[in-house]
Amino acid sequence: MEWFDNGWGLSLVVFLPLVGALALLAVPKKDEETAKWLALFTAIASLFFGVVAAFRFDYGDAGALQLGTKLSWIPSIGSDYEIGLDGISLPMLVLSAAIVVLAIVYSWDHWPEPHNPKGFLILILFLATGMAGTFVAQDLVLFFIFFELVLLPMYFMIGIWGDKSKVKLPGFNREVETRLYASIKFFLFTLFGSAFMLLGFLALGLKADTFSIPELADLGASGAFTGTFAFLVFGALFLGFAVKVPMWPLHTWLPDAHTAAPTVGSVLLAAILLKLGSYGFIRIAIPILPDEAKSWAPAIAILAVIAIIYGSLACLAQTDMKRLIAFSSVGHMGFVMLGIATLTPVGITAAVIGMVAHGVITGMLFFLAGSMQHRYHTREMARLGGNLKLMPILGGMLGFTAMASLGLPGLAGFWGEFMALLGSYQPLEGLSLGVFRTSMVIGAIGTVLTAGYLLWMLQKVNLGEPKAEWDDHEFHDVDKYEMAAWVPLLIAIVAIGVFPKIVTGAANDAVQVLMDKAFF
Amino acid sequence: MVTAALLGPAVLAAIDGAVERSDGGVLAAGAWLIVLVPFVAALAITLFGKRLPRHGAELAVAAVGFVALYGTALLLTTLFGDGIVHEGAVKIGEFGGFEIEWAWVVDGLSIMMFFVVGVVSTACFVYAVGYLEGDVRPTAFFASFTLFAGAMLMLVSAANLIQLLIGWELVGVSSYLLIGHYWEQKENSSAGMKAFLVNKIADIGLMIGIIIAGITVGSFTISKIMEKVVESDAALDDVAVIIAVLLFIGAMGKSAQFPFHVWLPDAMAGPTPVSALMHAATMVTAGVYLVARMFPLFEEMAHEALDVALVIGAITLVIAGLLAIVQDDIKRVLAYSTLSQLGYMVAALGAGAYTAGLFHLFTHAFFKSLLFLGAGSVIHAVHSNNMSDMGGLRKDMPRTFWTFMIGSAALAGLPIFSGFFSKDEILAAFREGDHTIVFLLGVATAFITALYMTRAISLTFFGRYKGDGHPHESPSIMVYPMIGLAGAAATAGFINIPGLTDWFYKLVTTRLVPAELLGEHATSFDWTALGLGVLAGVAGIALGYRLYYPDAATQQERDRLYIPGLWPVLENKYYIDDLYMNGIVNPIKGPVARFINWTNSYIIDFVVNVVGFATRSLGWVVYSGIDQRGIDLAINEAGAATGFAGSKLRYIQTGKVQQYAAALFGGAIVLVIGFWISVT
Predict the structure, then answer these.
(1) Across the interface, do B96 and A314 touch by the CB < 8 Å criterion?
(2) Contact predicate B465/B390, CB 8 Å
(3) How far apart, in Å, are the Cα atoms of A493 and each of A48, A360, A403, A407, A487?
């Protein structure tokens, strides 16, 4: 297995989907079966190697980069093909490879209009390479390329397969097509952040004469980057990552993108794409610029708790079920960012498990919302109701996942929230206790609001008697493709809740090493 | 992975040497089964229940029956052998320096709870098999009901505060499911939400309390925290009051203490067996249990928190007792009665009477579950919750009547019935602590208790039947659990008679902490407290008999007649619910949430859109003004390069994006080149 450990394994995880996508180009558009099987096969192969990586991974040394390689790539600017896996990237990598497989399985019989499975699958596979690549890249240029690679497929997914209804822009006297507005907004917003992020990367790379993330982290820990330079670079990185998370007030692309996106697009967006931002903070911004991280941390914490409260309150005002779930992401990612802002091992480990948990839980919620839209042809909660009666299994799953989403202890969502609050009681030494402890209390209040809007949603959608308009309607409960895509997520929600070591076993040590290097 | 962990030597040395201790052997080491079996059963019922002949009820009953047997075995072993004190743990994760464990503690306190939860659950579950005959969705009910019991067992077996919190919230969520069991009606699902959310608010206190305790001590393990209490650790001492008050806030939610009591009466929306279990052994006892479990912390380091508990308990016991007098719904009478009795328990703990508070929890569990099952039996027969539809039922339902009488006698504290001993011990504790006002409130509430129970019995079982149809006695499967509980309600008090028996005291003080931190057992009756308590009870019965026994006008008219000034206040539950709804919930759900959403659309997004449109206009200016007159070549090249994208984009009329992309990337490249030049 030496070949596997020398970077080939990880490269396979990352590039197999891309190879699959290219191969799909050669498949005739009409031959949907071949396209589907080919896509599924490459996604499963990628996941398989991801799982092999998890088994080859040395958990005793989770803080070190493993299974990676460093090959000369663009010598003229000093950028290398440097990849590697530590305890933080491992769970994210496996998660993203798994979600891609589930997305393809779900798509099997649920193609959004205008159909064209071949094109849709190509985009999913492109996304898979971008996401997996971001989590293993250990070179800033490489990271940037993967980070940006996810942008285009998602843009096309929303723009072509998205919601065709018209929407009136608040404050403007014009109507636009939802999918167009949402896709452009998503693209430009992210690109706006990325442009700054790229500047930050280039500044770091040119200053230090290397783009290698571990090397930059070593330099950063020894105090190589200081003063205005460090401040500006952190600010640039902050913008890039904060848009992606998204942090308040840079979040407004998210509800639109989610609402307009086809089901699988929403799932991938919520489950993985948002994590690229928070992962960037943990992997790049904090280790390379630890002192700046310290001075920015209180601001991040404040924005995070604003997001928690704001997101939850906004949820209470929604009438569209998918939009409600989208806004819930704002609040949940607020907890992740609060954990990160504490700059403590507890808080950042909480953020990692929070990212994974949000990935499986909110991914599942979007699957469910999509399937409900597919059946009811509406997302308006006022028209839904009694779903549990019409479709007991789907309704039961929705209830269960909503419980997980509100952070019910014993399920996956609890650990990230609770431990982020724990971390904020005692943030890194030198950080303002006042700010962080206040944040803790506000965050704890946020958990009540979170419970409030989710229970309210359940009451409107799931409970009560079905509306009269559905009387003559035939509803099919969960079908076999949905079952195959969802059961693994449900199992993961319980498993991570009952045995959080699935994530922390690798992540905790890695975070500890990262923090020790940066701050001690 | 399983470490049959044993007690730190330091703690062992601190334990009262007079009592023999053992680690309980295999029985205690396997106690995790008590928690696991109900959870597995709940899962199995969810997945396969529908295919079973009794829709999963058989699995549910088997699971709690197993718990009852295991609890009884532990109880007998610890009472008649050496006292069992055991902790075991499985590590499940770590966050920074904090290790997270599934861990179970088997000591006198948790064994007492295993026994109570097991026995009362078994009675309620068996009863439920009859009660839910023909229900719309029995499988969902029994799955949630089993989860409910399992969650409570997880809570009481928790050796660390995280697990306690997990059990705590799982109790909350299963109560939500059960209260809202008939979710077709909005009132029911709203009642479930109310219970969940009120508890969740109180849980903020619990969560933060746990966080502060965990960080201060460096561990969430309760015995480690107790070790620090015994050592009088200075760091813990500094924050002990805050921790204790925060934990108590959590306890106020679950144990429905004022001002968090509002959820409990509405929780009546669930099927009656749920009420019986919720009001007796699970859920509402959780708060009392939490305070008892953490009692040494309160007693040694946070006396102020005990004072808070005393005051809150005293307020609750009176205001809830008064509310019980004016209810027409028989279950609501019992619900307010539960609040009032919980007030006794909390106030007892607040007065430092650890054993008395737990003893009342113990006896109350039997007689209150009995009363609820009796009420359910009546409701089952007359198809109404309202006492104005009942009356004269003693002839039609003799067994329900007699068991209900025994339960009422225990609740009213009539001598030799179980409630008599436990309530007397609490009243004595108030006197001993010189809490005269609380003592007098306690006596007054004893009077009120006897009054409302006499009223309920008169209106339900005596006089003339006012409902429709012909009520008849419930089936045996419902009656036998009542008879069993009646036996317990009559006799449970004998295990802790001052000067005669001290089994209960010995049981609940068999813990990992020195017994002297848990108070002492009275060696003789406090005759003044006993005399006044009994007198108040008899007076309450006499007045109730005088007022309600003759069957004349309807019950509402009587109530209006006899308490005119108080009636509207009590009928509106002191307006507390209105205050919460109109003062907090509705504003947040309505204007506040809408305002936030408005901000999102009209401020943040407006800025975004303005920037977007402005840029596009600028683009047009640049395009038509500069580009078309000079450098169109570069743009054309870019357009050709993105030909595929472009055709797609034009097809869906989005045209402009690659221009932005090109512009932004172009800008970045210019900046890169600038950097490059300035650096080199």
Answers:
(1) no
(2) yes
(3) 21, 7, 11, 11, 10
Whether pLDDT at B542 is above 90: no
Using CA of residue B130, residue B134, residue B136, residue B142, what is the dihedral sign?
positive
Q: Return the axis-axis angle of helices B303-325 and B436-461, rounded to nearest 10°.
A: 30
Closest residue by Cα to residue A131 from A153, A112, A162: A153
**For A372-420, what is each residue's pLDDT tens digit?**
998 888 888 888 888 888 899 999 999 999 999 999 998 999 999 999 9
Q: Is A445 on the interface with B (CB under 8 A)?
A: yes
Rounded to the nearest angstrom, the gap between the alpha carbon of residue B456 and the centroid of all alpha carbons in its chain is 26
- Exposed/middle/buried for residue B30 (C-beta within 10 Å: 0-12, 13-18, 19+): middle
| ipTM for the assembly | 0.92
Residues A411, A489 contacting (CB under 8 angstroms):
no
pLDDT for residue B1 is more than 60: no
- Answer yes or no: do B96 and A346 touch at CB < 8 A: yes
Which amino acid is present at A78? Answer: G
Tally the C-alpha atoms within 13 A of residue A289's C-alpha that lie toward its C-beta: 28
Number of domains in chain A: 1
Delimit the domains of chain B by residue range.
631-680
Distance between CA atoms of B439 and A435, rounded to whole angstroms?
44
Contact B421, B342 (CB under 8 A): no
CB B46 within 8 A of CB B121: no
pLDDT per residue as tens digits for the range A194-243:
999 999 999 999 888 889 999 999 998 888 888 889 999 999 999 999 99
Phi first, then psi, for residue A52 (nearest 5°) are -60, -40
CA distances from A362 to A257, A310, A393 (A): 15, 18, 18
Quote the CA–CA distance of B616 and B314 in Å, as a whole number: 69
CB contact under 8 A, B214 and A422: yes
Q: Each residue of B547-571: pLDDT tens digit?
A: 777 655 555 555 554 666 676 777 7
The one-letter code for the residue type at B430 is F
pLDDT given at position B595: 79
* Dihedral of alpha carbons B252, B256, B262, B264, sign: positive
Q: Residue for token digits 């967006």?
A: A269
Average the pLDDT over B223-245 and give the result. Answer: 91
Across all residues in chain A, what is the average pLDDT?
A: 90
The answer to whether A417 and A407 have CB atoms below 8 angstroms apart is yes
DSSP for B522-544, please give it: -SS--HHHHHHHHHHHHHHHHHH
Question: A190: domain range?
Answer: 2-519
Cβ pair A459:B604 closer than 8 A: no
Helix B605-625 to helix B657-679 angle (10° resolution) is: 80
Q: What is the token pair recorded at A124?
A: 């999913």
Find the CB nearest A448 among B201, B605, B613.
B201
User: What pLDDT was estimated at residue B20?
Assistant: 61
pLDDT tens profile A126-166: 999 999 999 999 999 999 999 998 988 999 999 889 888 88
pLDDT, mean over chain B: 83
Question: Measured between CB atoms, which of B93, B596, B664 is closest to A313?
Answer: B596
Sign of CA dihedral B137, B139, B145, B147: negative
pLDDT digits (tens, 9 = 90+) for A22-34: 998 888 888 888 8
What residues of chain B, 89 to 128, have a C-beta less than 8 Å from chain A? 91-98, 100
CB contacts under 8 A, A 448-487 vs B, are: 448-449, 451-452, 455-456, 459, 462-465
Q: How far apart are CA A10 and CA A49, in angstroms?
A: 7
pTM: 0.89
pLDDT tens, position by position, B287-332 = 999 999 999 999 889 889 999 999 999 999 998 888 888 888 889 8
